[in-house]
Write a structure and sequence with these properties.
By secondary structure, this protein is of the alpha+beta class. The protein is built from 4 helices and 7 strands, in the order H-H-E-E-E-E-H-E-H-E-E. It has helices at residues 8-11, 33-38, 86-89, 102-108, and strands spanning 44-45, 51-56, 68-76, 82-85, 93-96, 116-121, 143-152.
Length: 156
């Protein structure tokens, strides 16, 4: 297991330019992963391609793109294989919402504190053509995250 410092949450903002040969090997993507997620009860599809589905309604405020948020999350590929989880580490993570992948910036703003949602992210608003060089996410990967919004710095 990777240390928390190497977690995807910490690398969500990092997409270093590296040659294709240095990137993670391609893993077969499920071509219908986005359509399957969009067909789930309660799912909505944003113009960006983000598929959002509330799993638990929160009762607190919703964050703005510039807020620092505290979350617990689990990241998986469409086949269910987990690539990262703050739950596994037993510690939530905090970050400025505008410093992560676009899917998170957009999706987490739709969650109220205390709520939990499933974000299905097309590659274009996740790690794109580069993936995470040397990391677990291959180029052009569709990703799924269950994100629980625990708090927003400075908001109650």
């Amino acid at each position: 297991m990777r240390p928390a410092a190497c977690a995807v949450a910490a690398t969500l903002a990092v997409a270093a330019a590296m040659p294709a040969a240095a990137q993670a090997p391609a893993v077969p993507a499920l071509p219908d992963a986005l359509a399957k997620a969009a067909a789930e009860k309660g799912a909505s599809v944003a113009p960006s391609g983000l598929v959002f589905r509330s799993l638990k309604e929160g009762t607190g405020p919703q964050p703005d793109a510039t807020d620092v948020v505290s979350v617990h999350y689990r990241g998986t590929f469409p086949d269910g294989k987990e690539f990262d989880s703050s739950y596994s580490r037993g510690k939530p993570t905090s970050f400025p919402l505008n410093r992560v992948i676009k899917c998170w910036t957009e999706g987490v703003q739709r969650i109220k504190v205390g709520g939990k949602a499933k974000l299905t992210c097309p590659a274009a608003i996740a790690y794109g053509e580069r993936g995470t060089p040397g990391g677990p996410i291959p180029p052009n990967a569709v990703l799924q995250f269950e994100v629980e919004l625990l708090g927003i710095e400075g908001k109650k």
